[in-house]
What does this fold into?
Amino acid sequence: IVTERQGGEIQLNQKVLNIYTHQGYSEVITNKEVFSTKLVINTAGLHSDEIGALTIPKLDLRIIPFRGEYMSIIKERQHLCNHLIYPTPDPDFPWLGVHFTRMMKGVVVAGPNAVWAFKKEGYKMSDVSLRDIGKALSFPGFQKAMRKFIGFGIGEYYRSMNKAAFTKGLQKLIPEIRKEDLVPGDAGVRALAVGRNGELLVDFVFAENEWAVNVLNAPSPAATACLSIGDSVAEKALARF
It folds into this structure.
């Protein structure tokens, strides 16, 4: 609504196929039409690396999808958590760890974990894309990260498939929580940027040139920081006009 009030248009259900840069402007080719623009701003999340590579061919990172699964606490046991409860974060990983959150309506959720999703929109274990798997495994940085964090990854998959193991992790924060108190909740997918050296990038990453501003990594607390990120993108854009 805000975009439309400012004279903008929102085009839905269009897939970007290519971006061509000419003298002073770019052409964005989609499956439906062609858009001409002086500046491309890429905030494509899970697909930001693919869009970014159309504007800056040699990007030294790849977006790897990691699914974060939640459990909901049954109503009779929600009194165990009255606030946000977080563990001490592990500095090796760009996420906060499994934690408890009391939502605005009083519902309490526990999570998320972090398992490699076999599809960029892999919200369920059964979601699989051979293309996305191949692109991840062919990237040297992800190969290095897998070798370095193989133990962590196996543990996350085990807890994902074993409710008792998931519960044991939660009991470090609330010892009274029981397996019977948990029911499956929602899941989200993180767009995790992995560097060519195998580093899991923990900070915001922008890649830009004269014709494009690419937001390639916006880890937690991205939602909390969204207005500040928006200001940064706007400043970068306005500097080109």
In short: Residues 226-238 form the longest helix (13 residues). The first strand starts at residue 16 and ends at 22. The chain has a mean pLDDT of 93. The domain at 68-195 is CATH 3.30.9 (D-Amino Acid Oxidase; Chain A, domain 2).
